[in-house]
Amino acid sequence: MKAFRIVFSKIIGLMIFLVLLFLINVISINVYPYRLVVSFINSNAVLIVVMSIIFMIAEVIFSFVFPFNLSGPIFSSLASMFLVKFILEIFSLIDRFIAEDIFTVFSAFDWLIYPVVFIAVLIGGYATIFARLIGGTKEEKKTKKTPKSRKKVKDWDDIGNDFRKVLSDFFRKIADSIEKEK
Fold it and tell me: pTM of this prediction?
């Protein structure tokens, strides 16, 4: 169920991005910075979508239990490399805005930046998996530390269930009153 929520929220986010992309292309403002940003977003739209999909896959895989989440850091590392590529493209856009070559220094270190980011995210991902395996999840720790005398805190699922019950009772009472009138 958690994986479905992740996929649903990420797909909604992608759809919103695509609608906004369509809107900024439809709106025609003849100002150089606006046209430059729109051109930048259009040229990097595929990168943004692919990066978002890979991050979504990584997040879904991380939501699984131990042996099934081992490929999560690989997807996360790959998506992080795309993110670094996008950040370097943003630096290039800033250079075009200010008509300077301040961020061109990073282009000389591309060959070093990508592997370092990949390896750092990969190590961090596996460290997270094994830390959860050894120490448990945050939810498990909270339930262990919660004293029994305290009341259970309601989460959004409980509130949604209570709201459904209230609506059900409301409509049932309306139906009962209509039946009594007949």
Answer: 0.68
- Provide the CB-side half-sphere exposure for 70 (13 A, CA): 3
The CA R_g of the chain, rounded to the nearest whole Å, is 25
- The total of other beta-carbon atoms located within 10 Å of residue 153's CB is 8
One-letter amino acid for residue 107 of the chain = S
**In this structure, are residues 113 and 84 in contact, taking their beta carbons and an 8 Å threshold?**
yes
Average pLDDT over all residues of the chain: 83
**101 or 9, greater pLDDT:** 9
